[in-house]
């Protein structure tokens, strides 16, 4: 008995391509899991966390590169989006460090690598990664675009809430009087919301199967370290 073509199995080449894609995704997840678990154990239990801190820039770069590898559309619109978000967020951070009027009085340590105008060059990349992940995750919710932007901004700030105690503990950056001001989270939300509105107005394929895994992995990483260091 023959079946209509639409109910038959996918061609072998299509199945093979799907299987290869899934294997690449699992490999990427495994690599990221290995880096984060190793870093977590080293920072939480080592007597010399400085050895593990030197790999923080590498971990950030690797994570972003793997996210980009699973972004299906890397055309002009996507490149412009990445450059714009990284540049805008970097110079907002410069203004924040130089004036102390945006996020509060803070300064960066040496962990995040090379600095320009007292701000690590990787900060723009970090904002790009968080903006991108927040936007992709919000795509799963079918609501008006501005509500999605609000939701994505909350996800970005939620990550910062987990990062802040760890960042202060390991000298990513330091706050005046060692107090994380509420002003910081307000400014993070404002900037994150602006970037998410921009994200919603750009046109590229907004789908990435690695994003949920990375967001959850980083959330658990920083939350776990924060709890252990209380």
Automatic annotation (TrEMBL):
So which domain of life are we looking at?
Bacteria
- Record's InterPro entries? CruF-like (IPR007354)
Q: Where are the transmembrane segments?
A: 27-45, 51-70, 77-97, 117-137, 149-168, 180-198, 210-228
Any Pfam family from its record, for instance, is Caroten_synth
Ordered alphabetically, the record's keywords are:
Membrane, Transmembrane, Transmembrane helix
Instruction: Tell me what this protein is called.
Output: Carotenoid biosynthesis protein
Record lineage: Bacteria, Pseudomonadati, Bacteroidota, Cytophagia, Cytophagales
């Amino acid at each position: 008995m023959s079946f209509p073509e639409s109910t038959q199995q996918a061609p072998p080449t299509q199945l093979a391509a799907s299987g290869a894609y899934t294997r690449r995704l699992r490999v990427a997840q495994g690599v990221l899991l290995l880096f984060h678990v190793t870093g977590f154990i080293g920072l939480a239990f080592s007597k010399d966390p400085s050895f593990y801190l030197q790999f923080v820039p590498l971990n950030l770069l690797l994570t972003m590169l793997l996210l980009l590898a699973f972004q299906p559309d890397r055309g002009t619109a996507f490149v412009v989006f990445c450059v714009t978000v990284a540049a805008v967020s970097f110079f907002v951070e410069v203004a924040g460090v130089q004036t102390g009027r945006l996020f509060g009085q803070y300064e960066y340590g040496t962990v995040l690598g090379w600095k320009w105008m007292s701000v690590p060059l990787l900060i723009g990349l970090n904002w790009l990664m968080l903006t991108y992940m927040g936007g992709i995750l919000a795509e799963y919710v079918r609501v008006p675009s501005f509500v999605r932007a609000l939701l994505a901004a909350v996800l970005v700030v939620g990550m910062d809430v987990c990062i802040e105690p760890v960042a202060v503990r390991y000298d990513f950056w330091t706050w005046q009087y060692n107090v994380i001001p509420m002003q910081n989270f307000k400014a993070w939300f404002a900037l994150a919301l602006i970037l998410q509105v921009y994200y919603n107005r750009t046109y590229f394929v907004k789908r990435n199967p690695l994003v949920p895994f990375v967001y959850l992995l980083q959330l658990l990483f920083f939350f776990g370290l924060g709890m252990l260091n209380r």
